[in-house]
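Hi W., the magnesium ion complex you wanted:
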Amino acid sequence: MQLWRDNDPQSIAGVLGAMLATATDRIRRRALLLVVAAIVGGICALLAGVSAWLFALGACLALGLAALIGLDDDGGAFARDGEHHGRFGEAEPVGGWRAVLDAVPDPILALDEAGTIIHVNPAARELHVNARVGGQPSLLTRDPEFLQAIDEVIDDGRQRTVEVQERVPIDRRVRITLTALAETFEDEAATDAGSPPRVIMALHDLTEQDRLGRMRVDFVANASHELRTPLASLVGFIETLQGRASSDPAAQQRFLGIMSQQAARMSRLVEDLLSLSRVEMREHLPPRTAIDLNETVAAAIQALEPVARASEATLTFIPCEGPAIVLGETDEIVQVVQNLVQNGLKYGRPGGTVEVAVRRIRQGPSMRLAVAVRDKGPGIAPDHLPRLTERFYRVNAKSSREKGGTGLGLAIVKHIANRHRGELRIESELGKGSIFTFVIDEQARRPSD
Ligand SMILES: Nc1ncnc2c1ncn2[C@@H]1O[C@H](COP(=O)(O)OP(=O)(O)OP(=O)(O)O)[C@@H](O)[C@H]1O
Ligand SMILES: [Mg+2]
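Structure:
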């Protein structure tokens, strides 16, 4: 912003006037300090025998210097070109309408009368990396309905909303609201550099909402399917007991045994569902209790000894050296170990070995503790690995159900790992076996030690 032109006497007079006003203002602001300095100086001069008129001249010079020094120190008087200052000491608002759009957390673009992009706020830049100032809205999407809506809004000034589906680079559904700006705003906006905005384009990404909706529907469908199967079996057996088998005690005993298994399966599923929702609800609250991982894992394994014996498998445990302190919830860590060991026993080789080890590992500057559960079973094909922690995902649904599985075990383990700010690592090779490792930060010692 230029303050005066060369050889313009009016402007020069204005600048001088402003300098004078600023100097006066500074003198006024420093008056108290100067008065005190003058009195002290005067007393010293008189005591030193300096004549009164010499002292008066010195005081005047000091006042003048004090007023002039630092005229430029806070940028108030001589604002440089391009800075947002108007007349002396009077600041214009910075950024104008662009700053307003930048402050909005939703993605917003502004178009001018010709439909060219004249502003992209940070949220929009994040969503549409290829949207740039000076480009056309077709950079966002070539959807004909969207491009036509822009022309119509510029023509008649009426708001329109369109939904566009993009396939590349990723599948995404975005709702775009196009709002025309009033003519009066153009005048105000014209004070800012460049063309005034004509249309404001607000983008609302619906992809996450769609994903969550699909997940909810899938979850309800899967959960009801898992419950419906044992329930249908129970209803069938009840009818048989009331009818054909009503006078056959041997058949009654057999059917009651199957019914009890189905009821147990239903209750396991309900328990797993509750456990999943509990850990999900607390996922944002990391545990604060210091526990010893060696002790917790040992207790979990001890409780699984009868299960290992029943499947004629061997269960071994190797603790790590010294105390293995982590911030954790004992019940949840026990649940992790039980889920992983039960999988090893269920899907490993019959009569084989499941090894559990607690190890200390270095990761960058910090030390972490790993609970590794290893089996020498048939292993898992690589394409299944990324999906194992999805709810109800099973490599072989029939075999899992036959073994009493609900397909929620690893989903629960993953959420517990998240809550502990840890991770679950899965390594597996077909024909060789699998290693499931739960990794968590090690604490130096128990806070109470
Ligand atoms: N150690 C393993 N070896 C081979 N496959 C495994 C192993 N652990 C898990 N799987 C596969 O991963 C699937 C998902 O495991 P997950 O623990 O989530 O469910 P589940 O064991 O079927 O049921 P739940 O644990 O709820 O009783 C299993 O169905 C199985 O196909
Ligand atoms: Mg399991």
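The mean pLDDT is 80.

W.
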